[in-house]
Structure formats: structure tokens, C-alpha cells
Amino acid sequence: MAKLNKRIVDQAGPEKSDYFLWDDELPGFGLRVFSSGKRSYLVQYRAKGRTRRFTIGPHGVWAPEAARKQARILIGRIAQGDNPAETKLLDAKTITIKELCTRYLADCEAGLVPGKGGRPKKPSTMEIDRSRISRHILPLLGNRRVTEITSADIAKFLRDVANGKTRADIKTKKRGRAIVRGGIGTGSRGVGLLGGIFTYAIREGIIEKNPVHGFRKPKDRVRDRRLTEREYRALGRILADAAIDPQFSTAAKMARALAMTGCRRGEIINLRMGEVDVQRSCIRLEDSKEGASTRAIGLPVVELLEPLLSDDEANFVFPGTEEGKPLVGFPKLWEKLVKDTPLESVTPHVLRHSFASVANDLGFTESTIAALVGHSRGTITSRYIHTVDTALVVAGDTVASYIQALLDGVKFERANYALDHSARKDAMRKFLTAAVSSTARSVDHLSAKDHPDTS
Question: What is the mean pLDDT of residues 11-39?
């Protein structure tokens, strides 16, 4: 057989069974002619004592000379010990991103994939993960092989989500809708989830390298947002008007609680009566993002929550319209409250960030702020898991009172009152006066016992 060229390939017609035409100039390079008439270029070689064939591609897609060049490359790799046919077979068996995500979610639900702090992922976190996977990851990467994904694919995923390529309006229930908008923040959090999924894939022996490692995600600008003092006063006016409207009165109280505690939205929505400790000025959350968490709350928060409490500790502090359930519709009510106002872009999470920022303005340290808002630090914060000390209560009082005053329209000349000498002296004077009075009463009581009235 002579050198394979276009004339010879075009003349090769079908027969009753498949047959091969081999190139004389490049040993191992050939053409397979199928009984159907289809023709395909290939390389035949021996590896591990077996004859192996690797298909380059069909004639028409590949021209003879292009196929010959590819064959030379393959034969060179084979000479160095590669086995392209086996590699191709392994690649074909590699699972897709969709299959990997299915395995990942199943193991998460079984508690086999540790979440934050080594704890199993919470149901609410799982719901968010499922949403990000089904609405962003699978549409863009679902059919790709896991081993094929590179950092460039991660960058394209982020860009596509940010540009709204996964934007959708999905019907979820009989009357429910899920509006998927995308954006930089959504894309960045999607990349974060992909990083966790690929880490799981490494643990399972599916891949050796995480394509997300070293990838720099853009900063989510929402997390830099905080309320100015003018915006606090504007929010106070909105909440004051909402408090007298039966539709929004409970949501207004919840918004005040969020603003004056720095709690997460879900922590206030799901707050139960038994988790509020009025006497010790704290809330003891049985389950939060960081697990069980005890937070100091300021006196304004105590005064807000105390009238709402009852003897049934299992009841929700902010009940919804459906018996035995909290006001889960708070996010939509919040959107209605701030719609068409200068605060329309403000989310409940901004209240949390603003609380921490105000605490910082007032001179409190990072560890104190972390304890107030329930951040996991693993050092100082861990001391406050079960108890709340006086310093934290004072910090809670200071920050909550300052924010309450802003909501009530107060304009402060300066913010750093934590180290104000006159205020500290006044507070200490009151404390010592109370202590002296208490001691005097104790002395009088003991004196009366030692010298009873005999008249």
C-alpha cells in the first residue's frame, strides 16, 4: 500500500465487512473503512504486549495530511511510554460535574462532608448549595468531565454568572417563583462552592488538583455596605410608620432587633421564647451558623423583646400567620418596607455589618465585636459560648443604645463614647452609691438581729 492521500481515501469504498488501509511511509498510521462507508483515521501500536488502536477522527473532519501530522505526534508520545488508547478510555469513564455534584450532595446529607467548624452542613446551607448547583453550576458546567476543568473554565463560569447567562424566572410551587439574576456576588459564591466540591473530588480520588485553588475571586461589594447615621435616622422613620400598620408591625420589630443586635436574619426569624434570657441580658441560640451561640444583648433589645415573651418557651418570638411557624415572610416584608426609598438597596445583612461597624466606631475590639455578633474566632470568642460577662453586656448596651438613638433621630457630635471620662465617672459613681446603700442596709439588718427590740 502506498502513502495515504486524498485520492486513495476517496476511492476506498465499503465492502461486506470493515477493512484497513495502512500507510507505507508512517508505520502504524492507517485508515479504517467501515461496511457503512464511513472512513476514519487511526494509529495502531503495541502496549503491554497488546495491540491497541487509537482513533484520530473521521475523514472529512480530518484531511489525510492533518491526520498524518497528528499520527506522528501520537507515535512520538507512544515511543516515550504513553498509551493514548488507555488514557482515552479512562477519560471516557471519568464522571461529569453533574455526577460529582450528585455524589457530593448525597454525602453532605449523610453528614460525610464536614462543613464549617467540622460540623455537618445545616439544612439551610444544603438548600442554598442545591440552589447554586441546579441554577448556575449544572447549566454551565454540568456535562463537562471533572478532569477537564481548568482555572480558565472557572474564570469563564464566574464571568458567565456575573453577566447573567444563568438568569431565569423559575416556577417553584403552585404560586411560587424563583427569580435568578446572577451577578458578581452570586458568581463569586458559586466559585466558592465549586472549590469545596473539587476538594471533595480530591478526597475521593477523582482528581489530584483543585482548579479553584489560587483563583482570585472579586470582592463582594455588598459586604462593604454599612448604614450612615443619616440612613439610620431614615430607617427609624420607616420603622416608626410601619409599627402602626398591622401588616408590618411585627416586621418592624424584627428589623429593630436586627439593627440593635447584629444577628443574622435567620437567627431573628427563628428566635424562640426560651432562647431569650432577660435576666442575664443575652440570647442563647440553640443552633446558628456557628452552632450553639450565646450573645450579649443591650438593654434596648431586652426592652423590645420582653413584652413579646410568654411562658411557652417553644413558641417563636416573632410568630407568622400560620400557627406554630415564625414570620418566614420577613424578607419580602422588608423589601416592601424599603421599596421606593433611599434605602431600597439595603438588605437585612447590611444591618448586621452596620452593627459591627458602629461597635468599631465606638472603640470596641475585634474580639468583643466578634462575640457580640457570633463570629467564630476559636480563641477569645470561645470563652463566651456558655456565659456572657459584664464587659460584653456593657458593650451590648452601648452599641444597641447608640443605634436606637440614631433610629429615633438623634444626631451625635462624636461617636467614640466608650472612653468618655465623664460618662465613666458617672456610671462608677452610681455603681458605688448603690453598693454603699446595699452595704448600709445589710449592716442595719444585722444590727437589728443582734439587738432585737425588747420594748
Answer: 92
Cell, residue 342:
433611599
Q: Report the alpha-carbon distance of residue 256 to residue 300 in Å, rounded.
A: 10
Q: Coil, strand or helix: which one is 349?
A: helix
C-alpha cell at 300: 434596648
- E strand intervals along 10-90: 19-22, 29-33, 39-47, 50-58
Spatial separation of the C-alpha atoms in residues 236 and 243, rounded to whole Å: 10
| Tens of pLDDT, residues 150-205 | 999 999 999 999 999 988 877 766 666 667 778 888 899 999 999 999 999 998 88
Distance CA 122, CA 141 (A): 25
* Cα distance between residue 71 and residue 435, in whole Å: 94
Element spanning 318, H or E = none
C-alpha cell at 46: 503495541
Q: Is the pLDDT of residue 299 over 80?
A: yes
Q: Which amino acid is at 369?
A: I
Write out the E strands in 313-363. Answer: none
Count of beta carbons in the 10 Å neighbourhood of residue 183: 15
Q: Distance (Å, rounded) from C-alpha 290 to C-alpha 147?
A: 34
Give the torsion sign (CA, 156, 161, 164, 168): positive
Q: Tell me if 29 sits within 8 A of 62, measured CB to CB.
A: no
33-42, 63-72, 219-228, 313-322: lowest mean pLDDT where? 219-228
pLDDT of residue 169: 74
Mind giving me the DSSP string for 267-294? HHHT-BGGGEETTTTEEEEEEETTEEEE
Place of cell 447608640: 402
Task: Identify which of 25, 22, 26, 60 has the alpha carbon closest to the alpha carbon of residue 40.
Answer: 60
- Alpha helices by DSSP H, listed for 94-182, are 97-109, 123-132, 138-141, 151-162
Q: Indicate the DSSP class of residue 415.
A: S
